[in-house]
C-alpha cells in the first residue's frame, strides 16, 4: 500500500474521520464507506500518513522509496532504482 507523509499542521480536514487505535498507531477511515484514509504513529509525532488511494490526484505524489521490501509479494515487480528498505524507511 502506498502512503504519503505530511506534517500535521499542513493538513486541513473537511470532516472528522472515524479512527481506531492500537499499538501506538491511530488509523483513520471513512465512517460512510470504510475506506482507509491514513494513520498517525506515536513514534512519529507531528506526522500524518495518507493512503494514496484516498487522494483525488495521486499522480502528484510519485514514490520516493519502497519500505517493507522484505514483505513484498513475490509476483509484484517494481522496476525502478528507488531506495528500498527491508522494514521501516525512517527511524522509529
Which structural class is indicated by helix and strand composition?
mainly beta
Strand content: 25-35%
Query: Largest sheet at a glance?
Result: 5 strands, antiparallel
Number of strands: 5
Task: Bin the helical content.
Answer: under 10%
What's the alpha carbon Rg, rounded to whole Å? 14 Å
Distance between the termini: 19 Å
Low-confidence stretches: none
Provide the number of structural domains. Answer: 2
The whole-number mean of residue pLDDT values reads 93
Q: How many helices? A: 0
**Form type:** globular
Strand order of the largest sheet: 1-5-4-3-2
Order of helices and strands: EEEEE
What features would you describe in this structure?
The protein has 92 residues and is mainly β. It has no helices and 5 strands. It has a 5-stranded antiparallel beta sheet, with no helix packed on it. The protein is globular. It starts with a strand and ends in a 41-residue tail after the last strand. 5% of the residues are buried.
Summarize, please:
With 92 residues, the chain is an all-beta fold.
Question: Which helices and strands appear, and what pairs or packs with what?
Answer:
Layout: E1 3-7, E2 18-22, E3 25-29, E4 36-41, E5 47-51
Antiparallel strand pairs: 1-5, 2-3, 3-4, 4-5
Amino acid at each position: 500500500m502506498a502512503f504519503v507523509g505530511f506534517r500535521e499542521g499542513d493538513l486541513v480536514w473537511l470532516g472528522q474521520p472515524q479512527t481506531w487505535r492500537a499499538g501506538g498507531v491511530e488509523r483513520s477511515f471513512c465512517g460512510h464507506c470504510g475506506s482507509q484514509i491514513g494513520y498517525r504513529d506515536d513514534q512519529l509525532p507531528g506526522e500524518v500518513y495518507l493512503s494514496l488511494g484516498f487522494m483525488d490526484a495521486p499522480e502528484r505524489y510519485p514514490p520516493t522509496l519502497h519500505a517493507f521490501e522484505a514483505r513484498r509479494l513475490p509476483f509484484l515487480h517494481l522496476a525502478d532504482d528507488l531506495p528500498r528498505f527491508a522494514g521501516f524507511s525512517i527511524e522509529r
